Amino acid sequence: MSAEISFFDLFLQASLLVQLVMLTLLSFSIASWAVIFQRRKNITQAANQLQVFEDKFWSGADLSKLYTEISARSHIYGIESLFVAGFKEFARIRKSNISSPQAVMDGTHRAMRVALSREVDELETHLPFMATVGSISPYIGLFGTVWGIMNSFIALGAVEQATLAMVAPGIAEALIATAMGLFAAIPAVMAFNRFSHQVEKLENSYGNFMDEFSSILQRQTAGEQQNQ
């Protein structure tokens, strides 16, 4: 009998509660892997976009032309959304004839801060779910194991002579629940830690860009004030 068939047989022989525990952990594992692939794709895209945008931004491109080019796109995300939000607010405040450079920069920085918060929230989507899977799956599996072993020993108490052949299947099916809990938890914890670190790095890069972009706009505003 193959290992796969034996595992399926053990699942069928398990009590209803242990079966529910196994199915729950299997669902957690499938959902966790779906989130892992989705988050990996989105975070990688954001990191690649950051590199491409910064190369273009620091190459000396005209900011107005760059804003027009990006604004024409149907979908703006990542660092481009910060740039568009900041430049749009900067242009709007200047058109409103506000003469105070500090007021202009405060409004611009506030708009970029809102965009930054929105982008970080997007990058962190479903990460709490992965943390939850990583933290509770071993305990759910352990609960299934304890319940299965408890039922096995209760059944042994009803017979006069217990043998290893009688107790082994019950213990095996119970231990599978713990194994499934670890199988669901370990990838979720590893992916959560990795993605959290990557999101933190992106957030720091976005924050640095905000400060540098604000400095550029501030120097531009100060130069215009001196020319008037």
UniProtKB/TrEMBL annotation:
TM region(s), chain numbering: 16-36, 139-159, 171-192
Bilayer topology: Multi-pass membrane protein
GO biological process: bacteriocin transport; cell division; protein import
Family listed: Belongs to the ExbB/TolQ family.
Quaternary structure and partners: The Tol-Pal system is composed of five core proteins: the inner membrane proteins TolA, TolQ and TolR, the periplasmic protein TolB and the outer membrane protein Pal. They form a network linking the inner and outer membranes and the peptidoglycan layer.
UniProt function note: Part of the Tol-Pal system, which plays a role in outer membrane invagination during cell division and is important for maintaining outer membrane integrity.
Protein name, per record: Tol-Pal system protein TolQ
Organism phylogeny: Bacteria, Pseudomonadati, Pseudomonadota, Gammaproteobacteria, Alteromonadales
UniProt gene name: tolQ
